[in-house]
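Format notes (please read before filing issues)

Several people have asked whether sequences and structure tokens are stored in separate files. They are not. Every record keeps both together, in the order shown below: the sequence lines, then the token lines. Line labels are part of the format and must not be stripped during preprocessing.
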Amino acid sequence: MRRILFLLIFGLTGLAILLSLGTWQVQRLAWKEALLADIEARISGDPVGLPESPDPEADRFLPVAVSGELLPGEVHVLVSVKQVGPGYRIIAPFRVGDRTILLDRGFVRIEDKDKDRQTGPMEVTGNLHWPDEIDGYTPEPDLKENIWFARDVPALAAELDTEPVLLIARSRTDPGVTPLPVDTAGIPNDHLQYAVTWFGLALVWAAMTAYFLWRGRAPSESRER
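Then the structure lines:
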């Protein structure tokens, strides 16, 4: 009887933990979907002028339309685009009035890295962003070859002598550069998968608990007979 009671308590405790984890992931799913919807609405909102002092949190994804001058000089950030392959994001200095910010012009293929690109006066529409692309495995930039491996806004600003503000273009700034505008595709939302996993484990746990309880009762019933 003690063995059966232990199995019952152990099984119900484990089942409760697994069900609570699955429920928590369902709650996280609802939160993430609301967050993504808010970000999508913010990204696609009506563009405004460049804020005087952009804030990395309050102004993240802010739609902006600016007129200015695209200056010579650029940095190449290695990326890979689905169904296209490897290439580079082109980051260049963009002067807006008496300020200079970073402009992510978009994507070029590997072989187009060192081609000449349009500079000078232009109007650009895009979104402000401060990407979080640095981790312990990110290599240092190859300054000799002008190849970077992440959009490290402060480091790029120091390299190109601009404010640490990055505008990611939605509009085209050169016929040979394909814009890679801000979207939510890179924001993970795996909570449904996690919820299914936890609930599946709860089902297996419940089945195993029932099996062991049955096994625990079987010898007792045999002895009674």
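For reference, the curators noted about this record: The chain has two domains: 2-39+188-224, 62-169. Residues 2-39+188-224 form one domain.
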